[in-house]
Amino acid sequence: MTVTPFNDGWAYRRPLGPFVGFGGEQLAARSVRLPHDALRDAERRPDVPGKGAGAYYPHGAYTYLKRFPVPAAWEGCLVRLEVQGAFRRAQVFLNEEFAGNRADGYARFFVDLTPYLRYGEDNELRIEVRSGEDSRWYSGTGLHRPVLLHVDRPVHIVPDGVVVSTVRLEEDQAVIDVVTTVANAGLSSRTVTVSTTITGPDGTEVERGATPSTLAPGEQAVVRQRLYLQAPALWSTDSPALHTARVALGYDPADDVVVNFGVRTVTVDPRKGLRINGAPVLLRGACIHHDNGPLGAAAIGRAEERRIELLKHAGFNAIRGAHNPLSPAMLDACDRLGMLVMDEAFDMWTRFKSPYDYAADFSQWWAADLESMVFKDRNHPSVILYSIGNEIIEVGTPHGARWARRMAEHVRALDPTRLVTNGINAFLAVIDEVPALLEAAGGGLNEAMGGTDGAFAVVAASEAASERTAESSAALDVLGLNYAESRYQLDQQRFPHRVIVGSETFAPQIGTLWPMVQQNPNVIGDFTWTGWDYLGEVGIGATAYAEDPDAVAALEREYPYLTAWCGDLDITGWRRPASYYREIVFGLRTEPYVAVLRPEHSGHTITMQSPWAWSDSVSSWTWPGFEGEPVTVEVYADAEEVALLHDAEEVARGPVGERRPMLARFDTVYRPGELVAIAFKEGAEVGRASLSTAGDARLTARADREHLRNDDADLAFVAIELRDEAGRLVAAGDRTVTVAVTGAGVLAGMCSANPKTQERFDGSTWRTFDGRALAVVRPTGAGEIQVHVSSAGLDPVLLALSVAELASHRGSPSSRLTIHPKG
């Protein structure tokens, strides 16, 4: 088997007339390197049908084109296209002949091109994609994940045909199974020897095996090899040791299949919780959407890896792909960096949530799409949970339970080594009974979004929810509960054999939620909504003030809101105050953290602040124009009391935990200088943190990597900041910044974290937000890249990056797509 990246040499266009594909008037095609999101550069408008759910982007329909030579030597081989993600309802044509299709925009799929090839000449590949009102978030449109070309000999290892699993761990060894599926597409019987070589994390060989196998024409054979690794390094979040299996059929080494895997076991039970390699683990989880901010939906390898790096640095040890399967590039990053994964298949089953969503395709495609997810995931040690759905309304009905059981068993048949879950929202599961339940509890629908003390908690803990979700929950290994922590302790008695995970929770409530996870052994973790800000569902975490004439007091905010504004990290990757609060709650940070509510809203009336919203705060003590004005200061600390000092003079002191666990809040007056928060336990100081007023702003720019590779997976992220001479961030006084990229690269995207803006990701000029902006540079060839960053009245910054040519790609995609963070 040879696997070749197929991401260069594409062009895309948008039809002008009513016909998407062959025929009809077309706009001129534009060259592009995949992965790519064509919708990102469309015009956002307030009147689009999808409104704020899709970030005010319109419907999209695009054609992707590629011409490529087909050597005469390929005749007699099998040629397949691997599409890792095409949003959505993709149709694949080769030389104007229909070759294959896929409805789901996140499913990885293969198309057999062999019958339509023209040998010894150029061939034309065309892929049509379309989207619109088919998601509750920004989906993007296009070939948003990589495309690969597989060329196989008649007798070959099938795609996804090598599966490595840990059978058991012993004191001195690990027992693993390597299961290889070989196919014979030739016209005569063949006997081949399946040879497997295992290398350890340091690259040295640790085990090998060889098994002969005879295949008749048209036959597939499964070859099982049990191998024994002596004292292997185990994979865990703290030590993500990766082994490699190389499986050969005796051809050229380029035909070998190379699979990275981790030696580890995963178990759960309601008394001992989740254990990895026998050691207990609590999931400090982040729900994340699939978009990459200024890149739109494009799953470029380095962008996926960077998100995992930053999420792990912020204290998370697990992610949940919401609400669709994660990309192979992100799973590779999770394997390397030690991040656990709950990979999720569907946001709906048979009932629609959006006018044109996957519910129309579910009954035809569900089994194939589950196979796609499992086959993609089952060699990744990071993946420990498969989720078959998110907030599925049907789980409260008998026939919905039938669907749950059917899917859970299908997943187990494909991969019996991992756990099956489903993110159940009990409120939605019994939605028809909610008015009666709230009336009986003395509540009302206005409290429905009130979190643990509101209707969500009341309904989730009701006997109706217990009874109606019992059958579908019994089909699972782990019950995922969305906003239903009121069941944690209840289910220890009601369902003593049930294991629970908080699959989706309100981020601001982590101070209450995490102790519940720690105190209930049947609960294995918490996944906050969300770890990283995302496009669409605009403004669900924003604060609306009565004094703002443009603000709408609604969960979905007005145009030009762009992001949900509810992530611990914003779309640039910068940690917001809520992230540091969470880190303190997790017990991973001992220093206090200081944040200041924006003084321009001091005394204003909040008309809308959803349970996903953190305070409207910034970690800054630089507020020019507000000298002598009232200001509110928040201090996050694992302490009993906090003292607030300004220039060494105490200006406030108070208890921690009155408004929220591990949080103290003070009203004071803004004066330039140094603000210090000192935390106390039993009268003794346990930590302090400070903020100082910044001086005059200077323009700074720093790339996360200076040495790049000329491939489709690499990027450089350039952090643009306004800082004073001492390096302090100047969060006030935002200004316009322009980026120019010349040489062997292009500006792939630019943004700030501003959740409400009309600026474009393909623009080269943005206004900073809280003193920061981000530029993303993508290589286009080997050589040097110059990045010029400028802002009127400030000294410009020039960065020099280098791009190395990459050797030709041959072999397994898992080995080829490895990215090293430091270049």
UniProtKB/TrEMBL annotation:
Give all residue intervals belonging to the Glycoside hydrolase family 2 immunoglobulin-like beta-sandwich domain: 166-264
Q: Please give the Pfam families that the UniProt record associates with this protein.
A: DUF4982 (PF16355), Glyco_hydro2_C5 (PF18565), Glyco_hydro_2 (PF00703), Glyco_hydro_2_C (PF02836)
User: SUPFAM superfamilies from the xrefs?
Assistant: (Trans)glycosidases, beta-Galactosidase/glucuronidase domain, Galactose-binding domain-like
Q: Which UniProt keywords apply?
A: Glycosidase, Hydrolase
Domain Glycoside hydrolase family 2 catalytic: residue ranges:
273-422
Span of domain DUF4982: 628-686
Entry keyword Nuclease = no
Record domain Glycoside hydrolase family: where? 699-796
- What GO terms are given for molecular function? hydrolase activity
Q: Which InterPro entries match?
A: Beta-gal/glucu_dom_sf, DUF4982, Galactose-bd-like_sf, GH, GH2_Domain-Containing, Glyco_hydro2_dom5, Glyco_hydro_2, Glyco_hydro_2_cat
Q: Say yes or no: keyword Flavoprotein present.
A: no
**UniProt xrefs under PANTHER family:** BETA-GALACTOSIDASE, BETA-MANNOSIDASE
Family membership: Belongs to the glycosyl hydrolase 2 family.
Q: What is this protein called?
A: Glycoside hydrolase family 2 TIM barrel-domain containing protein
Q: Which organism is it from?
A: Lysobacter korlensis
